[in-house]
Amino acid sequence: MITVVVHHYVLREQLEQAESAIKGNGKAMRDFQGFVSRQTLIAQEDTLQITTITTWNSVGDFQAWGNRPGRPQPQPDAPTMWSAPIESAIFEVTPEL
Question: What is the CATH number of the domain that holds 36?
Answer without folding.
Answer: 3.30.70.100
